[in-house]
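agent> call fold_tool(seq_1)
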Amino acid sequence: MQATPHSFRWNVRRLLGPLLAVLALCAAWPAQALRIKEVAAVQGVRSNQLTGYGLVVGLDGTGDQTTQMPYTTQSLQNYLQNMGVSLPPNLTGQLQLKNVAAVIVTAQLPAFAQPGQFVDVNVSSMGNAKALKGGMLIATPLRGADGEIYALAQGSLVVGGAGASSGGSKVQINHLSAGRIPQGAQVERSVPTPLHEGDSVTLGLNASDFQTARRVAQAINARMGEGRAQALDGRTVQVRAPNDPNARVNFIAELEELPIESMVPSAKVVINARTGSVVLNQAVTLGPCAIAHGNLSIVISSRPVISQPAPLSQGQTVVTQQSDIQINQDPGNIIQMPASAQLSDVVRALNGLGATPQDLLAILQAIKAAGALNAELEVI
């Protein structure tokens, strides 16, 4: 069957229609575009840290040992006095409370949180309690840095772990001396924010970068009008905003959605000396260099040696430890590393060394000292 010109044109139009729609959608957003809300935040709009001291009750014999933690007994005594229960002074030091634990309660009060709303809290043991699983936090006031009470926490703990012990053996999964109470604190007081003060809002970048500050200001001026935003420094952009509260909120919502082109970050290598982790970003490059690397291993082995006295010598059998120490050093070959302009080339060159992550920490520091690592080296 032969296709007519009309049917051919209809098939082409049917195939090109979705393709043109996809191309139009891709053209609407720049390649690798970021939104302003992902690189900056409005200054003054932030959360506040809250903390408090409380008691967890209802534990199954895994609470504090009150003989070693006297403040747990004192806290419970103060709580009972507030409830109208008085204990004889001679019994205060004799209380053995195995189902009570003293804890520190922390929470984050979000921006614009109003009285009556709920926030999550974290509960951590501050004594020698074995586990907080199954416990309940009694009413605990949470205070801010100014000493004022902003929330009240209470509820049953959620502990993501388990453990058991018997006959000197112990098995434990995850951490048992800390837990969380979802929606466990009710806000009692709000924190005022300077969002509606003045005729402008200030955007604070997540990281100091003059190029990012300039592009944020340019994107705002291109959309909102020339002269609307100006970069004050490498981390601050000031934007003129409407004075009406509703108009200012709409203005900030539209402002945060403006797209900007992603910038190439400065070359950086982050080294975690505790875990041996090494992280490189895409801007890291290597210059030509030569590396000689050899492994040094020390093996220490010990075995018991039993010395028995001669018969009828009234001596004693003595058990001593005899240790053998061996030091092995593998020969190091000189490896020439070519210049690497891309991250994949850098990874391939470092893998060619055959070094462990711990050895790689020292190698990268030596390459940086030799001037062949074109990146900032940060050790955390």
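agent> call fold_tool(seq_2)
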Amino acid sequence: MKNIPFNKPYLTGKEAHYMYQAVFNGKLSGNGEFTKKCHSFFEERYDFKKVILTTSGTDALEMAAILCDIKPGDEVIVPSYTFVSSALAFVREGAHIVFADSCSDNPNIDPEKLEDLITEKTKVIVPVHYAGVACDMDRIMEIAHKHGILVVEDNAQGLDSFYKGRPLGGIGDLGCVSFHETKNITAGGEGGLLIINNEQFIRRSEIIWEKGTNRAEFFRGMVNKYGWVDTGSSFLPSEINAAFLLAQLEQLNEIQNRRKTIWGMYYEGLLPLAEQGKFLLPNIPNYATNNAHMFYIICRDIEERSKLIAFLKENGVLACFHYLALHESRYYEEHYTDRPHLPNCDYFADCLVRLPLFYELAKEDVELIINKIKSFYKDIL
């Protein structure tokens, strides 16, 4: 029996060559030739004002939390249906997390429920573009501006996806991207990107990135010496990671096109079952694009989902559920007295299942997975 993994990082063939070149150049510690080339790629392709490579998407979020000047007691609104880093980065700065519900028809944060959560202590809203599909950013930005609140886009999954023609991560005050090996492209297993759209954060972002020093300004000749001027940490990835990432970025169009083809095969093959009411398929709003980060179906209840995952595993296919609701986590229960009622979040946490999707997933493998799902709903349920 053939085993189909959930994910497999794709190698373009240039990664090892560029990594060797980084070693040969004699600079490995970061912010060298390959880091600068990656920065230029993002700033030119997406017209971002300023970007900074980081060692992970989590580190990008932690930099964003520092830039937002979070203080103990500040409130940050985060969707409960997300990865823990979306909240943890702000918790580490002392924030009180206020969890928001998802939309009824997709896992993204419901903007129409935001104003009920805003208080005089609210400092940041963190929309998470689930599966690389945009939140309703016009509505979120309208609410944020009305109340004087910063917006940090958690765009971990949304590289090369757009909202009304604007690249995700480039709409809020700050944006964060992940290059973990489960994402469309990777920086060698781990990596991230901070996008600075609000000019007031540009200078300080470099200082925080460089361990709280103005080292970057020194090397540009803007100051005659550098020293410790602010808080920060060692957020720079090595040139090895940047070299790996550059090889991936150069093949971004090819990678995206292949993933979109696989996504389309799933959608077309599973649509008849969805039309019969067996499950729901992903909903892509008309203001959003699809970067094919993920293909999922939404089962009718948790029991059905568990049986489907087990059935696929028995047949050599590794499918996975996704996030557990953060408002029901042990950490939240131990540190917070609030018990929010978030029915849409709970629904996706119980019923959503992700199918394998990676560059080298063959057409016959996609067809096998589709046929196994058809068999499950015909013969098992």
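agent> summarizing second result for user.
The chain has two domains: 15-249, 252-380. The CA atoms of residues 201 and 236 lie 17 Å apart.
agent> awaiting next instruction.
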